[in-house]
Amino acid sequence: MNAIRIDGKAIAEILRARVAWEVAVLQEECDVTPGLAVVLVGKDPASSVYVKTKTRQAEAVGLKSQQYVLPSSVTETELLTLIEALNLDESIDGILVQLPLPGHIDRLRVLEAIDPAKDVDGFHPYNVGRLAAGCPALAPCTPLGVVHLIKTVVSDLNGLDVIVIGRSNIVGKPLAILLGDAGCTVTGAQLQTRNLPELCRRADIVVAAAGCAGLVRGEWLKPGAIVIDVGINRAIDSTGVTKLVGDVAFAEASKRASYITPVPGGVGPMTVAYLLANTVNAAISRRGLSLVTDRDAASGQPASEMRGVRWIC
Ligand code: NAD
């Protein structure tokens, strides 16, 4: 079997087109341009690249985008003061503080300072709790992207066995909730899990989000499994070139899986696209308009799906 690649780049492009359309409708019918503020502390090269990508794509879909680059010496109080100002700024609908933060800043205190209605990363405990309780919430972008990718290749998730490897607050835990809500039987694995290969072999869908290059081997997979690789790891290839690789041994896994996401070009683009979608959702719900919840269905024909969608201003 040779797995079909799930093209996250192309699917994210469709989602961004839909978000751009929604922004245009909001502008035209409600005179609202959703605003996204991205805050970067320090000069971590990977974080700088992520922030640049997020800002560029936000502008491309028509969002108002503001970037705040603070020195790594910034105090926690100064950062909290900026967040408070952004909370009060009516033109800002989404606030994202790029992680990781320098060690002298309390990450949880910063995340809790963000107005939950503007928490487009979905990391505020208020949104985490609402998601767990099955209430409408701003959910984290990467898990939303993973569920969207899965739904492009399997329409009915009811009863499927899924293993999510990794249980971080930003990926594994919220993803397990979303997949459980979608009807899957979810096994959550982490570093301490015993018999990981055996658990994987039982799964219809394997999601790897451990941050461990090549962890999931081909022989761990049930033939025909769907494999979603969230991991982003730097590895040096045989020619000495540094490459990005996932948590899945891609070549081996491709021989057993039915569908597989590549790294790069799989989950990563979806994460950024959902940040834009969450910003529009925040803009809509903060103004008491109706929340768009059916983006998961955007599977190639966004124009026809979007027909008839209108918001009451
Ligand atoms: P994290 O370090 O916070 O959590 C890792 C989790 O994986 C932990 O629960 C840990 O117990 C588990 N784990 C680690 N090694 C394991 C092993 N050998 N076996 C089983 N479980 C193991 O990481 P994170 O922030 O959740 O990120 C995970 C990976 O996903 C990283 O590579 C990160 O770069 C990547 N990531 C990608 C995106 C994207 O948009 N593609 C977004 C977020 C994170």
Characterization of this structure:
With 313 residues, the protein is an alpha/beta fold. Helix content is 41%, strand content 15%. Among the domains are: 32-116, Leucine Dehydrogenase, chain A, domain 1 (Rossmann fold); 141-268, Rossmann fold (3-Layer(aba) Sandwich), CATH 3.40.50. The model is unreliable at 291-313 (pLDDT under 50). The protein binds nicotinamide-adenine-dinucleotide (NAD). Nicotinamide-adenine-dinucleotide binds next to helix 10.
Q: What does the secondary structure layout of this molecule look like, with pairings?
A:
Blueprint: E1 4-5, H1 8-30, E2 35-41, H2 45-60, E3 64-70, H3 76-88, E4 94-97, H4 107-113, H5 125-132, H6 141-153, E5 161-165, H7 172-181, E6 185-189, H8 196-201, E7 205-208, E8 226-229, E9 233-236, E10 242-245, H9 250-256, E11 259-260, H10 267-286, H11 302-306
Parallel strand pairs: 1-11, 2-3, 2-4, 5-6, 5-7, 7-8, 8-11
Antiparallel strand pairs: 9-10
Helix pairs in contact: 1-10, 2-10, 6-7, 6-10
Bound molecules: nicotinamide-adenine-dinucleotide.
Nicotinamide-adenine-dinucleotide is lined by residues 142, 165-168, 170-172, 189-191, 193, 196, 209-212, 215, 230-233, 267-268, 271.
